[in-house]
Amino acid sequence: LFKEQATLLKKHGAAVVVMAFDEEGQAATEEEKVRICKRSYDILVDEVKFPPEDIVFDPNVLTIGTGMEEHSDYGVDFIKACKTIKEQCPYVKISGGISNLSFGFRGVMKIRESIHSVFLHHAILESGMDVGIVNAKEMLALSELDPELKEASEKLVFNSDPEATELMLELTRKEKAAIEARKKGGVVEVKEKSWRDESAIKRLEHALINGISEFIDGDVEEARQSCSKPLDVIEGPLMDGMNVVGDL
What is the pTM of this model? Predict the structure, then answer.
């Protein structure tokens, strides 16, 4: 049936998204993800003659931070599998539904998006992941993360600390308390620094990365006045921002 459907898709010139499932179920470990994707690749390319550049593998982003030990490596296993799949299956693309990763922390968007930011940074820049299904409106750049949350997310994603889940749960409880305090008009102990408090140079970088044009005229003029010549604005914050956009 797999070959039959692949042949039909090839006939119509369509690309194909292949989930990492086989007769035994979904791939959870690094080894299973690589094995199933390589098997699918060999069938598609060698037998069906499917163009490898039209194959998108989804090796299953699974939930971490559940408290179950067998789930602890799901994040790092996906990241490692991406790299190996790209090496063993030339020209393919890799995708994944990122919200699954932090499902255990649903309801606290700042926590979830911090985990996603760390995960995507490593999966894309280090392992070659191409496509992530994300909530673009809520996404956080790695540079925007609170240092404490960034460190906790790194530990959770890479399962580098046996207390990683408990640490993230504690941060989640604090964030929920802060959310409730804000709803009631109370005072939140932790003041979140706004990007508007940064220098004009940093504000321009942030605006470029996040596509914000509301303050651009005033920030550009302030940055120009702080530079020795107008070209420094282009060669400085604007190029720095473009470099970050290129990495994303």
Answer: 0.75
